[in-house]
Amino acid sequence: MITATPPRVRRTGQAVTAYGLLWVFLLLNLAIVELMLANPKTPAHNTLTSIGRILGLHLAFVMALQLLLIARLPFLDRRLGMDRLTAWHRWTGFTIFWLVLLHPTFVMLGYSQFDKIPFLSEIPNLAKQMPVLLGMIAAVLVGIIAVTSVRAARRRFSYEAWHTIHLLVYIVVVLGVIHQVYEGSAFKTNNFTQAYWWGLWTFAIGALLTGRLFLPLARNLRHRLRVAAVIAESDDVVSVHITGRNLHKLHARAGQFFLWRFPGHNRWWQVNPWSLSAAPDGHSLRLTAKAIGRTSAGLRELPVGTRVFAEGPYGAFTAAARTRQDTLLIAGGIGVTPIRALFEDETLAGDIVVLYRVRTPADAVLLGELRNLARLRNARLHLLTGRTTEGNQPFSPDNLLALVPDITERDVYVCGPAPMTNEVLRSLRTLRVPARQRHAELFRLAA
Predict the structure, then answer these.
(1) Model confidence, pTM
(2) CA distance 183 to 52
(3) Per-domain residue ranges of the chain
(4) Does residue 445 contact residue 82 with C-beta atoms inside 8 Å?
(5) What cofactor does its activity depend on (predicted)?
(6) Which helix (H) or strand (E) holds 232?
(7) Helix, strand, or coil here: 441?
(8) Domain at 319-441, CATH from 3.40.630.30, 3.40.50.300, 3.40.50.80, 3.20.20.140
(9) How confident is the model at residue 298 (pLDDT cuts 50, 70, 90)?
(10) Is 255 exposed, middle or buried (0-12, 13-18, 19+ CB in 10 A)?
């Protein structure tokens, strides 16, 4: 019997430290940016171009922040979680979109006033300069990325197509750096400002390359992951068992996910985020996926021995996030995969209640495993079925309280479709379950 006291103080302190460092980094760099704008090397032609210059420098700064958010830095991921970082990435992305619209607009308005020509005539005039043309191309690409990120448009794309489109961000970065080299003026005031500016960008690009390229390459060379077995769980759900060398050195935890690629079976850019559906034991990993897109549907045809390229582990949806001794696990549909892994994790001590929401019992993937774990752990498992109607709302505050009367004394982990997860979180707030006890996995993954 495990009776370890949950690490409330340590976990809360780690998150507070991460938030504090982020705010210090942001405010310090913003202060330097504003000082750089106060004394530019060359004066602007007029007020409009001056505004354009201000917007341009802030645009470049926000782009550097965006690189840090998509670099998947372990320090931030383990303390704040990929969901929160990805939400910030989304809002930062739309900030970049508006700055990309406003920066060239004010610059061209200023130059059209200075050159005494119509606004539209200034576009081909400035486009004759290669650095400006590259900036215009980058702006168009940012527009494409932003449009496909709007939820209404996002639902029309498969995950694979959406992810491929978002690879354009790396082209935008290259074009943006070239544009700054030739067109930047605010950060060229003196040697300090130039050293600071390129130091910031070197740090951002270095973090991106380390987190997204060098570290995954090193890990995959070390572990040499291969498909060991492919097991059909139902007509549209399959589990893939993966083995490799020294998997204990991955330090993966139940509740985390990897980005999975299967070179030779799929194209290299086809990557999907799938959670571990079993607690890692240092010898093998298991993912379980529902056939939604082309890649997930193709998992059933994976030959044993297929090479696997995995990025991760990612996410703070683990037992390390708990603040209370007892736990409530809530799963919906295929969102059961990280919940099932957490249920197996022996570090999740105390009394455990599991709520599993599906339309019909036949849709309850891994139900047999959950029942076995419930018996082994002396836990309570509730299978909640049926369509959600006015008379069947298992996650309403009253129904949640009826199922788990001591819910405010538990950590609550929830993973499932976004509408269900949002409903659960609303009910938890209504029931006054403290924010530190609410843990959700939404898979809002950045490219």
Answers:
(1) 0.81
(2) 12
(3) 8-218, 224-314, 319-441
(4) yes
(5) FAD
(6) strand 226-232
(7) strand
(8) 3.40.50.80
(9) confident
(10) buried
Nearest in space to 356 (alpha carbons), one of 388, 378, 334, 324: 334
Work out the pLDDT band at 203, boundaries 50, 70, 90.
Answer: very high
Q: Residue 249 has what pLDDT? A: 93
> Is pLDDT above 90 for 307?
yes
| Residue among 337, 354, 329, 326 at smallest CA distance from 412 | 329
Q: Cα separations (Å) of 99 from 60, 61, 95, 169? A: 9, 11, 6, 15
The residue with tokens 């068992």 is 241
- Start-to-end CA span in the chain (Å): 42
Closest CA to 223 of 105, 287, 307, 328: 307
Same fold, 224-314 and 319-441: no
DSSP notation for 194-206: HHHHHHHHHHHHH
- Dihedral (Cα; 294, 297, 300, 304), 10-degree rounding: 30
Question: Which residues are CB-neighbours of 109 under 8 A, at least 6 positions away?
Answer: 48, 52, 119
